[in-house]
Amino acid sequence: MHPLCSEIIHILSGILPEQRPLPLHEPFFNGNESKYIQDCLKTRFVSSIGRYVSEFEQQLAAYTGAGDAVAVVNGTSALHIALHMAGAGTGDEVLLPALTFVATANAVSYCGATPHFIDSAPDGPNLDPEKLERYLDTHTKVKNGVCFNTKTEKPIRALVPVHIFGNPAPMTQVMEISRRFHLKVVEDAAESLGSFYNHQHTGTFGFAGILSFNGNKILTTGGGGAILFNDRKTAERARHLTTTAKITHPYRFTHDMTGYNYRMPNINAAMGCAQLEQLPGFLKSKQAVAEAYRNAFLPVKGVDMLSTPGNCRSNHWLNALLLSRPDRHLQNCILKETNTAGIHTRPVWTPLHHLPMYRLCPAMDLSNTDALSHRLINLPSSINLETRDNAS
Ligand SMILES: *Cc1c(COP(=O)(O)O)cnc(C)c1O
Hints:
16 strands, globular, about 400 residues, nine-stranded mixed β-sheet, alpha+beta, binds pyridoxal-5'-phosphate, about 15% strand
């Protein structure tokens, strides 16, 4: 076996609990989940009307500092609505990292627009702002307040920074670039509830930001998502659009546009309210797990834990090992040995420009992304993970 591979396996077995299989990320319910769900059943408000939905929205806005939050069925539908409202439509392009979950690109496609892939920073995991700005300088032109891709001649409407694994993207530069090139910013903060950039919550910088409450995220509602807006009027329009664009009336059904049935059900929001009460505790546990990994791998040459820039606070949603250089052989060895032993690890997503439906999309040089896909390995990161260094 590769000597570094056996060293890494040895360290992991030393700090991880003995439970097998040990999942990558498990949901954690230790609060009022049952109580609030029972309340939905008792009152029979289980669907898209009920007090928990608006309560959850208000609590999300209060926690993130957003002007308003609109709760929807999942993070993907949140992205769909946010991009649609940002003006992405047929014949347009939207800039997004090639290194993200497929939902980010799928939502662009649902709008009829084309994903346009941008590269990650050399040591990842987020977009590289300098490389992006240089690329836009040479490959786009702004005409009458619209940015055009000079090669495809299509308008580029929006830029989607993704806060990967809970690590905040460089939002100061992202916002500067978006102003220079007239791009609407829709932040994919699906993984970053509880992550802050310069003391400001991720997802609150641009036109809109989205959250996901899928079962594998830091906070779960079973399935769910939310759109964050600073502008309340825009949020109100989003709420209208996600509830079939129905005109409020005691008994008449009238709709003033093609809306969507994307409203989060009350039963999911009830779970969300219970989970949100526990978020500060979740973040503390996550911090402890991240520190245990960091301390354990600090003395090891050839590998680091993915780190957070100094002006940021990460929610440490998913911890990742970062090999010093791309090494398929070593990466495969670590993945195979851990998963065979019942320790669930995984490589980062297959970069989107390698997926059949996105192979021909416009893209800049993606060499950092390709290198990172052979450098990153996600490690078990559940909220209730009791690392031994932690327990001692
Ligand atoms: C989870 C996730 C989504 C999609 O959220 P769903 O609730 O699963 O639809 C979008 N983007 C990123 C980066 C994600 O991790």
